[in-house]
Amino acid sequence: MSTEEIAIVAVAQTPSYRHYNDTEPSLLMTLVNQILADTKLDRHDIDFTIAGSCDYLSGLPFAFVSNVDGFGAWPPVYESHVEMDGAWALFEAWVRLSMGDIDLALVAGSGKSSPGSPREIFPLQTDPYYTAPLGFDPVSAAGLQAQALIDAGKATERDFAEVVSRSRRSALANPNAQVAKDVSVDELLKEPYFASPLRKHDLPPISDGASALLIARGDKARELTDKPVWIRGIDHRMESHHLGLRDLTVSDSTRISAEKLGLKSGPVDVAELCVRYSPEEIILVEALGLSGETNINPSGGPLCGHPVMASGLIRIIEVAERIRSGEAQRGVGHAASGGALQQNLLCLMEGGA
Amino acid sequence: MSELPPITYTLEYPYTRTTGPVVGAFLTALRDGRILGSRCGDRVICPPLEFDPDTAEPVAQDLVEVGPGGTVKSWTWIAEPTRKHPFQQPFAFALIVLDGADTALSHAVKARGIDAMSTGMRVRAQWREERASAVTDVYFVPEADAVDTYVPPGEGEVELTEHLISLDFKEAIHPFRERFARGLIAGKFIGQKSPVSGKVYIPSKGYDPLARVAMTEADDVELPPVGIVAGYTVITPVQYYGQKETEPYIRASILLDGADQPLGQQDIKNIPHDEFRSGMRLRAVFRPESERKIVEMDNRWGSTGGVIDHWEPTGEPDAPPEKYLEHLF
Predict the structure, then answer these.
(1) Chain A residue closest to B211 (CA)?
(2) Which domains does chain A have, with CATH numbers?
(3) Given its phi and psi angles, is residue A300 left (phi above 0), alpha (psi -120 to 50 degrees) or beta?
């Protein structure tokens, strides 16, 4: 094992499209070519590639194999895949580089949700005996979580609307956002319920898109960029998929990950949280122990653009970009999977030579 | 030019799962009008589990009856149900702590409206007349609306569950694939020639995977309807779910003259299997123009079904292996 630190040296993301009328490999190819151009590397300089995607999303069995076209697979390359958000692909790549024998890994996440019906697809993630036959979907899980927050006196519908209003306003500065608008809390609260106490704007927009980044070890990172973004740690944890066994008003997995990473041992300038449903932000902010000093979801977050399987990796990219620009020195990216924040990943990043 | 319709497809997988002792007992009891939980330490967990959720240790099987009444711990009113939900009119999903249980079950509540729902309300299980040994054999209603009915016991123990996954997809045909499709309808093969590697792809994916560059309409090329059998297999159809073929048939890759990538997945039913061979020269015979339809076209593989009637031997001498060995698939 190598103890050398690993840094993000280049990042790329597509816009969050409502419908992208071309293939998923073409989305990835654009990003891979952009990263190679930015770093002046050749495809075959890269030691390891890994992608996160989900065949069920666009209903194409073995779509993840077609996606390898985006990376360029001839002559053959060393590659891997996770049927998860690209943030978990980053975790595998980070562990792989820690072994110390290779220097560079290319990581991507991609997904097209527009061809299918996400509310019908995602119940298939749940328990196949007790939950999936009910068509129990993540929107419904988020509704139960939101009502539990209200009943516990931890939030109000106005708090949810405030998350949405602020996120959409922030997204006005994000060219990749799909939904961006200056809209007041009072206006939002006039909308009808969709999955009470949630309204449609408390949900993420159906999105197509991709994200990618390049990580490098130690001196290789310094050689490729004068602004490496060092990964100080990644921790991910999962809770029960039976909602009835959890306290839905807290995220223990996120809290424990933050403790393991020592998140609060320094200032957190920026946090990009995978807030797919507005109440999740309230739970995550508490679990991470964030204060008013942290800039939360300056990109607008998934409420303004949510290409599933790329969305978590985009959170990490958004933090890395702010560290590279000097806007932030230290920050955390969060990715989530499963209903009602079942599974969470934190990536702690810091600038410096 | 008229619009080509969007591509639609249905993805289906029929799952048959073994239940194991605990889920099987739960589903058997549910079919017969009773709800079971599992004792785990000093708690009763419902739905029952084979393991302790806190430690993941197996627990001795100790199932106890709970419900049919319970208390709503949280709920959400579903204004626009999906096709997969238990009700097609608005209803609630709720976390329900059944009487005698310590944990909540996620299930559906049929109520007159959102105003009939509240946290802490009492609900009661109702059994469906038609039961399928599935968790959907019951639903819940507000206690005041409950009607207790006789649930006749079924036969045997539930050991398997059937779950057909069926998902519909719809998307616009991608621009490069639309030009391929329109070419087929006009009786032409339209591929693309990479401006970087010079390779000719048909059907193109809109990019050159070797050079990793996007291609445009300017890269389109027409190829002749004549080519070489680059590889083939004789498929004996296994009668799996969704199989449409009954007799053995040939599936061939045909390398059109001038192409670097064979046209794959071509079904051959008119040439005897013992006469078919790699290197053979074939010509595409298109259906009459009025009968050409783009069927089973997708954005990934393309398809010539509904356009090409069959492939016929040209009678020319076979091509030597060096012409096609690098282009088998």
Answers:
(1) A72
(2) 6-117+206-224 (3.40.47.10)
(3) left
CA gap B22, B133 in Å, rounded: 14
The phi, psi pair for B320, rounded to 5°, reads -70, 150
DSSP assignments along A103-144, one per residue: -EEEEEEEEE-TTS-HHHHGGGGS-TTTTGGGT--HHHHHHH
Q: Does the structure show a pLDDT above 80 at B36?
A: yes
Per the CB < 8 Å rule, is A196 touching B79? yes
Cα three-residue angle A93-A98-A100, rounded to 5 degrees: 115
Beta carbons of B82 and A196 less than 8 Å apart: no
Strand, coil or helix: B53 = coil
**Residue A296 C-alpha, separation from nearest chain B C-alpha, in angstroms:** 27
Chain A contacts in chain B segment 140-159 (CB below 8 A): none
C-alpha span between A159 and A136 (Å, rounded): 25
The tens digit of pLDDT for each residue in A305-320 reads: 999 999 999 999 999 9
Q: Kindly tell me if the per-residue pLDDT of A66 is higher than 80.
A: yes
Å from B270 to nearest chain A CA? 30
Put simply, whether B169 touches A (Cβ < 8 Å) is yes
Residue A215 has pLDDT above 70, yes or no: yes
- When CB atoms are compared, the residue of B9, B53, B136 closest to A59 is B9
Name every chain B residue with its beta carbon within 8 A of the beta carbon of A28: none
Helix ranges (DSSP H) in chain B: 20-31, 175-185
Give tens-digit pLDDT for A140-153: 999 999 999 999 99
**CB of B288 closer than 8 Å to CB of B314:** no
Pairing of strands B200-201, B189-193: antiparallel
C-alpha dihedral (A56, A59, A64, A68), degrees to nearest 10: -150
Does A1 have pLDDT greater than 70? no
CB contacts of B78 in chain A (<8 Å) are: 140, 143, 195
Grouping H, G, I as helix, E, B as strand and the rest as coil, residue A273 is coil
Using an 8 Å CB-CB cutoff, list chain A residues near B83.
Answer: 120, 135
Interval A117-146 mean pLDDT: 96
